[in-house]
């Protein structure tokens, strides 16, 4: 019978005192700080299977039979064969150039989930525009994108020069929203990617960053200095005040905020376009063409020609994109 096993970490110098083994595929092994996510989600560090203790070093803390264990998208759903504390989820995300994994239960998820229902009413911004729905462009590189299933939208996937979700009027990208999980936000602050992203977003007529968590969770981080992250976010907002960073508590609320923001931006763009058509000599802010940025393959080829070492596959480092833009004299394109 398949089992979830928690053992004590034999490494006395590790701050993660337990090993979690899950029988998925050849097995998944993580270092973690607790035996169950009772009050908060537990950070899990992916470990090699050969780190599992052998012989006298193996001290089993808990061994529980599984009803089910299945991977769904970026998460592994784990259901234990016991009456209480039986459901949990191993959630994968990306941060600081490596996999970051969190172990959460329905209780810890509920603590971060406000007791509200997102509305499905038509956005007031579209009243009088004659549009029954809006087309939202989803960046081709976006993993696990928003679907906007309960809203009046249709989505298309294309490469965006900035952000993850945008609306287009004619040939102009009029607004874009960059989506961030909290681990991704913190890692992008630390490695400078958020600074580049805000610079690119500020070139658009309207843009924003939406975070799928609460502002208070910035101060609950253990592996970074919360004050340093808060100071960096404040400095970035002062430098680029036209690109707000919005904390939307949860992924569904972040999706709802993104939809409402893009709908309002499209209505504003239609008004700007109408003013430009009616008033001779009037100028508008709709000046950024919807031109796709360079592909990763193009930048990789340029980097190799310039003698810069880059991987054969996957995303390129932010500094490689920065060097490419500096060489080409542009601030658009890239991740």
Describe this protein's structure.
By secondary structure, the chain is α+β, with helices and mostly antiparallel strands. It folds into 3 domains: 3-111, no CATH class; 124-278, Rossmann fold (3-Layer(aba) Sandwich); 296-328, no CATH class. Helices cover 26% and strands 27% of the residues. The chain has 7 helices and 14 strands. The protein has an 8-stranded antiparallel beta barrel. Strands 10-9-11-12-13-14 form a 6-stranded mixed β-sheet. Strand 7 (87-95) and strand 8 form a beta hairpin. The longest helix is centred in the C-terminal third of the chain and has 28 residues, at 251-278. It is globular. The two termini are 44 Å apart. 29% of the residues are buried. The model is unreliable at 276-283 and 330-335 (pLDDT under 50).
Q: So what's the overall shape?
A: globular
Structural class: alpha+beta
Q: Kindly provide the name of the CATH class of the largest domain.
A: Alpha Beta
CATH topology of the largest domain: Rossmann fold
Number of helices: 7
Structure summary, number of beta strands: 14
> Could you state the oligomeric state of the chains shown?
single chain
Average pLDDT reading:
82
CATH architecture of the largest domain: 3-Layer(aba) Sandwich
Which percent range describes the beta-strand content?
A: 25-35%
> Which ranges are low-confidence, i.e. pLDDT below 50, for 5 or more consecutive residues?
276-283, 330-335
The whole-angstrom Rg is 23 Å
Helical fraction? 25-40%
Question: What is the string of SSEs from the N terminus onward?
Answer: EEEEEEEEHEEEEHHEHEHHH
How far from one another are the termini?
Answer: 44 Å
**Main sheet record:** 8 strands, antiparallel, barrel
Q: Biggest sheet: strands side by side, in what order? A: 1-2-3-4-8-7-6-5
The count of domains is 3
């Amino acid at each position: 019978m398949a089992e979830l096993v928690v053992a004590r970490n034999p490494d006395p110098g590790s701050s993660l005192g337990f090993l979690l083994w899950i029988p998925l595929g050849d097995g998944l092994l993580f270092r973690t700080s607790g035996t169950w996510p009772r009050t908060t989600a537990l950070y899990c560090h992916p470990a090699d299977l050969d780190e599992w203790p052998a012989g006298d070093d193996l001290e089993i803390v808990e061994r529980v039979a599984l009803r089910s264990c299945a991977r769904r998208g970026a998460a592994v759903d784990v259901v234990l064969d016991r009456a209480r504390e039986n459901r949990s989820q191993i959630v994968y995300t990306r941060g600081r150039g490596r996999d970051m994994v969190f172990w959460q239960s329905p209780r810890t998820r509920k603590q971060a989930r406000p007791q509200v229902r997102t509305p499905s009413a038509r956005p007031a911004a579209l009243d009088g525009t004659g549009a029954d729905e809006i087309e939202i462009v989803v960046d081709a590189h976006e993993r696990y994108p928003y679907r906007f299933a309960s809203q009046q939208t249709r989505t298309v996937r294309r490469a965006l020069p900035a952000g993850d979700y945008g609306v287009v009027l004619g040939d102009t990208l009029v607004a874009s929203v960059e989506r961030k999980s909290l681990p991704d936000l913190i890692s992008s602050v630390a490695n400078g990617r958020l600074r580049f992203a805000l610079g690119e977003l500020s070139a658009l007529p309207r843009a924003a960053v939406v975070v799928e968590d609460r502002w208070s969770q910035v101060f609950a981080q253990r592996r970074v200095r919360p004050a340093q992250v808060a100071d960096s976010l404040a400095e970035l907002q002062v430098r680029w005040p036209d690109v707000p960073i919005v904390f939307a508590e949860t992924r569904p609320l972040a999706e709802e905020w993104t939809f409402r923001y893009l709908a309002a931006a499209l209505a504003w763009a239609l008004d700007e376009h109408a003013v430009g058509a009616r008033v001779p000599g009037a100028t508008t802010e709709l000046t950024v063409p919807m031109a796709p940025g360079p592909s990763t393959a193009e930048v990789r080829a340029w980097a190799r020609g310039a003698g810069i070492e880059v991987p054969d596959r996957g995303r390129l480092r932010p500094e490689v994109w920065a060097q490419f833009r500096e060489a080409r004299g542009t601030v658009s394109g890239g991740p």
